[in-house]
């Protein structure tokens, strides 16, 4: 029989690497809490229409990369429905905002999420078909100040703080304004006009994009098309006064809190909902997939999926890429957080008759906060010592005599010293000794 493997583009995360994932996730949760964000968990699959209307039919994500299936009705009360594994989480969060009438609070909602997303892309380093995002959204009615450039700057400042706290060095914030719903049609018309005489010289993908979604041409990495792209009109020249003032205010607030940035007038994003501020944090260590995270403002998204006016801004960090960056940066990080921190003790039952008692002792010690491994009474003593030496700092021997007397033999692998400790004092002794 052929062996079964994880599906192409998906992978297993194993210890000790998962320790690093946990550390990153808990740092993110701690930073988000300081900015008063609460966690939201939305379903992993949604109605396909949510992404078609929210992210945009013409985007690569919706047109080529979604895992979509027809879910047949199983009961009379159910309808057949097209469902999709979420390729991103912003549309789901905005759907939940609408569904739970969060706008009626009259307050800005600050929500974060950590979870898997699914895109059927060509797998390569830093690009998977199931990948993880840590994201956050700030959304609310305009009366709550959700359109304020201060919200944009606050989100960007939080991201800079988070990356710094995680120890990521060498990140670069690229920022642009992609204009409002009124600027966009004028710019798209200018792009189409400029592309019309030259598009036949471009790659097949870009010829198609020039027709369906000309903004995406700007984002193309195709080397043969770069010269044409360089000469295309710039969105900055098509922004109206409101968009220009908004963007200037975001940059001024970033200056005020010392967040470095680079205005990249060619930056566009792969999702259609963006308006005004759009950004990416890139990292040189990542190779071709150099976007550590991306985000921006989406002032019309709620209305596009049938909700009230609810401007918002948010981001999603590619967690897989963040981990790759940390690993490349600190070769030793895995060892320091996991491999070099063995358990506090290994309990070795000296016969199978002591297995249950060993588990009970482990239960007691774990409840007092110690990290404990338990062996097996069928092991010979030599084998117990060998395994314990790999996993723990100390070995606790538990035989018939020890159980009867309540005095346990503990050997410390670092010093080689052996001591006898009454059971009642064992937890304290294991904690106090280095
Ligand atoms: P996005 O740029 O499509 O934006 O994805 C955000 C980040 O997810 C990327 O910068 C990248 O780090 C990571 N990512 C995307 N695709 C993959 C993949 N196939 N494998 C590994 N990592 C990947 C969004 O998803 C928006 N929802 C962000 C947002 C939130 N905008 C406003 N609010």
List keywords for this structure.
434 residues, alpha+beta, eight-stranded mixed sheet, five-stranded mixed sheet, 17 helices, 16 strands, elongated, binds histidyl-adenosine monophosphate
Taking the sheet with the most strands, its summary is:
8 strands, mixed
Strand order of the largest sheet: 1-5-6-11-10-9-7-8
Average predicted confidence as pLDDT? 93
Rg calc = 28 Å
Structure description:
By secondary structure, this protein is an alpha+beta fold. The strands form three sheets. The chain has an eight-stranded mixed β-sheet with strand order 1-5-6-11-10-9-7-8, with helices on both faces. 39% of the residues lie in helices and 21% in strands. The protein starts with 16 loop residues before the first helix and ends with a helix. The longest helix has 18 residues. The site of histidyl-adenosine monophosphate has 27 residues, from β6, β10, β11 and α12.
């Amino acid at each position: 029989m052929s062996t079964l493997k994880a599906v192409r583009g998906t992978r297993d995360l194993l210890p000790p690497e998962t320790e690093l994932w946990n550390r990153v996730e808990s740092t993110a949760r701690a930073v988000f809490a300081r900015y008063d964000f609460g966690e939201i968990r939305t379903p992993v699959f949604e109605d396909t229409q949510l992404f078609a209307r929210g992210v945009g039919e013409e985007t690569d994500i919706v047109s080529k990369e979604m895992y979509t299936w027809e879910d047949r009705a199983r009961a009379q009360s159910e309808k057949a429905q097209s469902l999709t594994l979420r390729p991103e989480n912003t549309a789901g969060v905005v759907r939940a905002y609408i569904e739970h009438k969060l706008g009626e609070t009259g307050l800005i909602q600050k929500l974060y999420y950590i979870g898997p997303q699914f895109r059927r892309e060509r797998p390569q380093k830093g690009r998977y078909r199931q990948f993880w995002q840590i994201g956050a959204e700030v959304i609310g009615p305009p009366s709550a100040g959700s359109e304020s450039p201060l919200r944009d700057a606050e989100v960007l400042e939080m991201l800079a703080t988070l990356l710094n706290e995680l120890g990521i060095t060498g990140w670069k914030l690229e920022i642009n304004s992609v204009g409002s719903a009124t600027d966009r049609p004028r710019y798209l018309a200018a792009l189409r006009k400029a592309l019309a005489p030259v598009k036949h010289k471009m790659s097949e993908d870009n010829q198609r994009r020039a027709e369906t979604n000309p903004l995406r041409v700007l984002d193309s990495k195709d080397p043969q098309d770069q010269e044409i792209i360089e000469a295309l009109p710039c969105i900055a020249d098509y922004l109206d006064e409101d968009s220009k003032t908004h963007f200037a205010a975001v940059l001024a607030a970033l200056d005020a809190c010392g967040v470095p940035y680079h205005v990249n007038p060619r930056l566009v994003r792969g999702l259609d909902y963006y308006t005004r501020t759009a950004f990416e944090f890139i990292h040189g260590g990542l190779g071709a997939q150099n976007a550590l995270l991306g985000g921006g403002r989406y002032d019309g998204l709620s209305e596009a999926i049938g909700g009230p006016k609810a401007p918002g801004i948010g981001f999603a960090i590619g967690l897989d890429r963040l981990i790759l960056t940390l690993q490349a940066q600190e070769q030793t990080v895995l060892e320091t957080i996991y491999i070099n921190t063995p358990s506090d003790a290994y309990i070795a039952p000296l016969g199978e008759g002591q297995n249950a008692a060993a588990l009970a002792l482990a239960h007691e010690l774990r409840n007092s906060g110690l990290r404990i491994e338990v062996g097996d009474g069928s092991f010979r003593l030599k084998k117990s010592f060998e395994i314990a030496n790999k996993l723990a700092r100390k070995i606790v021997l538990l035989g018939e005599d020890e159980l009867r007397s309540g005095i346990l033999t503990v050997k410390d692998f670092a010093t080689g010293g052996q001591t006898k400790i009454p059971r009642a004092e064992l937890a304290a002794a294991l904690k106090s000794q280095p």
